[in-house]
Design goal:
It is built from six helices and no strands. It has about 180 residues and is mainly alpha-helical. The chain has one domain (about 5-170). Helix 1 runs antiparallel to helix 2, helix 2 packs across helix 4 and helix 4 packs across helix 6. It is elongated. About 35% of the residues are buried.
């Protein structure tokens, strides 16, 4: 197996593990994400040293730029409270594997997958009524939003959307 195929396989395994963890406990361990990022960097360096074509793209800095871009593209959603920190760190890991163009595409596809998953998730027991109650509360609160919500309608396991979006980005890359 060449290093590119190994990189794709390990990325798929890391994404599957993150998605399963998020589905089970709504958490993804930092050590899991850090280890995945380290593996991505190591595979990139091995490919560069062996004159092979790395998954993240050409240049020694490609995985670092990809990781930084993955972080920066999703950071506004985290700051708005629409996404958890682990989701941002997962996309950072994806960026280390696939580089800047790959992670930009993965973010786009992940946002689309997240939107579709959220629509499906609304149909699960109790989510839609809680969401509607929250919307009524926000409407009564007025434009300043002074009335806090009693509780969240639900938390979407966004690692699933990131895994699906990353797979789609590898299957249907944009800009190449």
């Amino acid at each position: 197996m060449n290093l590119r195929a190994l990189s794709l396989t390990l990325l798929a395994l890391w994404l599957a593990g993150a998605a399963m963890s998020d589905l089970r406990s709504r958490r993804i361990a930092n050590r899991w994400l850090l280890a995945g990022t380290g593996v991505a960097l190591a595979l990139h360096l091995l490919a560069m040293a062996g004159n092979a074509r790395p998954l993240a793209g050409h240049g020694w800095s490609a995985p670092l730029v990809g990781a930084a871009l993955g972080l920066l593209l999703l950071l506004p959603l985290y700051l708005l409270g629409a996404m958890g920190a682990a989701d941002i760190k997962l996309m950072t890991m994806v960026g280390a594997f696939v580089g800047p163009l790959g992670v930009a595409t993965a973010v786009l596809y992940s946002l689309l997958a997240g939107g579709l998953l959220s629509l499906l998730y609304l149909n699960t027991a109790g989510v839609l009524p809680r969401l509607l109650a929250n919307l009524r509360t926000l409407h009564r609160a007025g434009p300043d939003g002074a009335t806090p919500l009693s509780r969240s309608a639900s938390r979407l396991p966004y690692a699933v959307a990131i895994a699906l979006g990353s797979a789609a980005a590898l299957l249907w890359p944009l800009g190449r």
